[in-house]
Amino acid sequence: MRLVIVHYHLRPGGIRRVIELAAPHLVKHASPPITHVTLAVGEALDQPWNDAFRRSLPNITVEFAIHPTLGYAAERRTSSPHTRQRLRAFLDRLFAQSPDLAVWAHNLGIARNLILADELSRACARHRAPLIAHHHDWWFDNRWQRWPEIQRSGARTLAQVAPLTIVAGPNIHHATINRADAAQLRPHLGKAVTWLPNLAGPLRAPRRAALARTRAWLKDKLQADDPPVWIFPCRLLRRKNIAEALLLTRWLRPGAWLITTGGASSADEQAYAQTLERTARSQGWPLRLGILAHRDPNAPGVPELMGASETVLLTSIQEGFGLPYLEAAAAGRPLVARILPNIAPDLRQFGFRFPQSYSQILIHPDLFDWNVERLRQDRLFREWRGTLPRPCRALVGLPALLAADGPRPVPFSRLTLPAQLEVLRHDPELSWNACHPINPFLKTWRLQARHRRLQLTPWPDSASRWLGGQAYAARFLPLLRPQASTPVSPAAARAAQADFIKAKLAPDQLYPLLWTQTKHAACRRTRIRAIDVKN
Asked: What pLDDT does residue 520 have?
């Protein structure tokens, strides 16, 4: 059997990590055996990773099929009117190499290349290949700035985009990384849906020599004499809410550096990253963004960085699975984390308990200009709401700050970036004194952090039943059998999308950090041949 893995790119991130962890287990346990693995991607620029992936699959033919039509549509510098034909010909050539194949496609639901989603489902139907559409994120989950891009790709209405993201067609199976998403899809797609939690396991602690090299490397990069380091292993994305991690670091461990690992992985996030970086530099905050973003041959890996750090932070406002929760436990590092309602039940079922977890950090209204922020949010909210597809505008709830009848404590995550930075500009002791009485759990954590006694999350024995490689293969491999795939109708996809959208526009899902229309998203006009939507 040939397993074809399809993704837009192989940039560092959670999806690449899932691929590299899962593939050896799928190959080991597959029956009939997988003899060929092909990574079909728009770009594969990290040659060391490519070589390591090949080495991880000994005695298997591993190929990289790189074609620009597989990448993000908005990032193509030029757009040929023959994009669809080129992509169709590429997929037919690729699939013709083996009559016995299965396709594992990642994140079609973020709608970064609708022509790919359309042509891939059609090619799988022509070649009678099962298609596993593996969903890590969704375009309608606080990524509404994609709507103009989607329309320019030719899907003008929600009805047209639904079967291209919740992919419709024969031989389709939808895999979700959390139970909440599976529960949204099952009423409409039935047996075509599987909950497939990401795999993870406890890590071997880095050797002392590797940790010593990492600390020396950090000392050089930070230009500081062996400072305490707290780490947020993430790319520079607005949804990561990095300013909250900086606020917690300054409150709980004064003098510690906060570092993040990856850079901005798309042009949409550049303005957010640059604003954070510029402000931190001007204010002298101990913040180093994207410490692994530049190709440094001497740079340590993320496990070594985590091992050399005192504490791991995770302050995201949105996650599909939350791998850093597990990575912190696997690395034996204490975690300070915002717990998210869509993944908290899964983590509990796996057996994890996170002692330094919280739902919100409340901010005293004296720490920012309430009236200015209210006017700012009102303007941004109205502008953002006006960019939504017209049927969605009536579904939007009222954000927390705009719903308040006057100044009151508000979650830090519900502020715009300018207001977050306004809070951070205060002396940390002043903001601490204003906020710790309304966040009483923080006082204990601060005392523990000062003495390096934040609690660890042990790796539970029960986790292997859910997250181990063999368990992952046992859930995944049955989906490769043609009889396991189920026809998904366009009507079912539309109904599932409608339910998702209603849930994602509720007040508790609204975050001002994600309303801003970036210059790139709002102004770029990529010429893409319109999709011929036949459903």
From this structure: 36
